[in-house]
């Protein structure tokens, strides 16, 4: 069975950076852990010399197999979208990638 990492990279406006970071660590990661995806969650800040317009963060969620990916898409991603839209409307821009662990 293959293992995957779902990566959410988000650019967050400077004024919202601390609030976003707090929300991810205090609410979203515990939510993901409660889903029991079976693997790990890593939250990082992307280091960039040109971050005058905000910070870039990465949330990496380890999942097992395509079933884990599908479960995250059904349960985890809608929560991320709902909360970022509610709490940080127009202040967070993200893209998502799927990585296969070799």
From TrEMBL:
Pfam families: DUF4286. It comes from the Bacteria. This is DUF4286 domain-containing protein. It comes from Williamwhitmania taraxaci. The lineage of its organism: Bacteria, Pseudomonadati, Bacteroidota, Bacteroidia, Bacteroidales.
């Amino acid at each position: 069975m293959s293992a995957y990492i779902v990566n959410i990279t988000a650019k967050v406006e400077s004024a919202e950076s601390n609030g976003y970071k707090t929300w991810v660590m205090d609410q979203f990661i515990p939510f993901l852990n409660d889903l029991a995806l079976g693997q790990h969650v890593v939250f990082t800040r992307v280091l960039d010399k040109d971050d005058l317009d905000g910070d870039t963060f990465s949330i990496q969620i380890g999942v097992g197999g395509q079933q884990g990916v599908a479960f995250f898409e059904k349960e985890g991603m809608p929560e991320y979208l709902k909360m970022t839209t509610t709490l940080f409307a127009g202040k967070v821009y993200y893209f998502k990638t799927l990585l296969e662990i070799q």
